[in-house]
Amino acid sequence: MPVLSFSHVSKSFHRHAGQMLLRDRxxxxxxxxxxxxxxLLADELFLLAEGARVSRQxxxxxxxxxxxxxxxxATIARHLCAAA
Length: 84
Prior knowledge:
The chain is mainly α. It contains three helices and no strands. The chain is flat and about 45 Å long. It starts with 5 loop residues before the first helix and ends with a helix. The mean pLDDT is 87.
């Protein structure tokens, strides 16, 4: 069984911490935009972004990641329209 090096664990920790900071920033932006369920919207956008990143790596820029902006806009509109 391979042993993880300290640098590998450290990189993984910092990546995770950075991802959580991004998700928290999204939640603050969603709340500032007036989303009634800002935490839920932030989670949806975060998962869309992560999925788009992985999709781009695995199938290239012409795959589902190419529609990320349109999907994110629809998700935001759905949440903000629910507030109106």
